[in-house]
User: Which sequence fits this backbone?
């Protein structure tokens, strides 16, 4: 595992298991992380667009679609930076 991948996994673990102490992230904050995570893990979104009535699924699909074309490394780097920003903003503490 590369240093970047190790930092990415640590950031993902912090988001999954950490505890915010200054409020909670907005849906937009969560979707930004979701899109970058999916891009880093799976690459470009090739799934078909969900129906509009599936609002949660569609929001996630759109977040991932916004990251289309980014390399795995770029998505990981941006994810780590966003986690750092949200950690500071929401006071996320490690598990």
Assistant:
């Amino acid at each position: 595992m590369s240093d970047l991948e190790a930092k990415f996994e640590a950031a993902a673990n912090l988001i999954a298991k950490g505890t915010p102490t200054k409020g909670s992230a907005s849906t937009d904050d969560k979707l930004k992380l979701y899109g970058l995570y999916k891009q880093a893990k799976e690459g470009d979104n090739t799934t078909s667009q969900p129906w509009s009535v599936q609002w949660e699924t569609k929001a996630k699909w759109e977040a991932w679609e916004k990251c289309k074309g980014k390399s795995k490394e770029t998505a990981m780097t941006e994810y780590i930076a966003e986690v750092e920003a949200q950690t500071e903003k929401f006071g996320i503490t490690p598990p």
User: Anything to note?
Assistant: Helices lie at 3-17, 27-42, 55-65, 72-90. The two ends are 22 Å apart (CA to CA).
